[in-house]
């Protein structure tokens, strides 16, 4: 039997809730134990950003930061809707309500500066969910997107990467990584039924990883020990640097 992640108002329906939880609990079989080696990205201004997998115990810090953006005042570039959706996805990740999700964080001097998440639909297809940054630092959005696609292709071994873009600002990533488009509306993305833009493993390894203009965004390994240690002393950003 599996214990529910949060208190449940009844103990039997008429079954024990632990039995029901076994049916509601989402699988992590495709991502469990699949490590992502942290890497270092240096922005155009020289800031050192550590990209690594988030830990579930860090979710309260991520959620605290996202919650501040769930407000119509942050409607530019659709930050408010992206924050709301990312909040729900990270919360679902912590409570076993989203199948095979993973979350990557970008950390600068201990501060959370961005979140990038995705999930595996099956062993062959990764679904990009959201990308959001809390500070305007040169190229971190592109570097974070590259990091979560890298994990899907190079660690999890998927054959296709499915994305969609909720704003023209975000769609630039699709153009930059030269995504193709699935027939629409026959094939729809799970984030509201929008078009699916995709890359294949062949695109990733034989095109994008060889493009000179993309190489700075792939970062370097290993991360110096002091910077890596500092990244695990995670705290919310001191301020949100969002253009309004």
Q: What do these coordinates show?
A:
The chain is globular. The protein is of the alpha+beta class. Helices cover about 30% and strands about 20% of the residues. The chain has one domain: Aminopeptidase (3-Layer(aba) Sandwich), CATH 3.40.630.30. Helix 2 runs antiparallel to helix 3. An eight-stranded mixed beta sheet has the order 1-2-3-4-5-6-8-7, with helices on both faces. The protein is built from seven helices and eight strands. The mean pLDDT is about 95. It has helices spanning about 15-25, 60-70, 80-95, 140-155, 170-175, 200-205, 225-230, and strands spanning about 40, 50-55, 100-110, 110-120, 125-135, 160-165, 180, 195-200.
H/E series:
HEEHHEEEHEHEEHH
What low-confidence regions span 5 or more consecutive residues with pLDDT below 50? none
Provide the number of structural domains: 1
Q: Calculate Rg over CA atoms.
A: 18 Å
- State the fourth-level CATH superfamily: Gcn5-related N-acetyltransferase (GNAT)
Strand content range: 15-25%
Structural class: alpha+beta
Protein name: N-acetyltransferase
């Amino acid at each position: 039997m599996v214990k529910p992640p949060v208190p449940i108002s009844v103990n039997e329906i008429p079954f024990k809730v632990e039995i029901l939880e076994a049916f509601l609990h989402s699988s992590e079989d495709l991502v469990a134990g699949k490590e992502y080696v942290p890497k270092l990205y240096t922005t155009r201004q020289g800031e050192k950003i550590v990209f690594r997998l988030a830990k579930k115990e860090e979710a309260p810090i991520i959620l605290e930061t996202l919650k501040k953006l769930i407000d119509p005042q942050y409607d530019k570039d659709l930050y408010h809707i992206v924050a709301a959706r990312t909040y729900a996805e990270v919360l679902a990740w912590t409570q076993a309500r989203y199948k095979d999700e993973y979350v990557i964080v970008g950390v600068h001097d201990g501060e959370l500066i961005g979140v990038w998440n995705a999930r595996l639909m099956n062993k062959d297809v990764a679904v990009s969910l959201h990308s959001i940054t809390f500070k305007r630092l040169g190229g971190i959005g592109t570097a974070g997107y590259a990091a979560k696609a890298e994990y899907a292709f190079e660690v999890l071994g998927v054959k296709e990467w499915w994305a969609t873009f909720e704003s023209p600002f975000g769609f630039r990533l699709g153009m930059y990584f030269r995504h193709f488009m699935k027939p629409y509306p026959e094939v729809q993305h799970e984030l509201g039924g929008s078009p699916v833009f995709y890359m294949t493993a062949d695109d990733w390894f034989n095109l994008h990883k060889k493009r000179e203009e993309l190489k700075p965004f792939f970062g370097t390994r290993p991360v110096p020990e002091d910077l890596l240690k500092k990244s695990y002393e995670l705290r919310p950003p001191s301020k949100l640097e969002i253009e309004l």
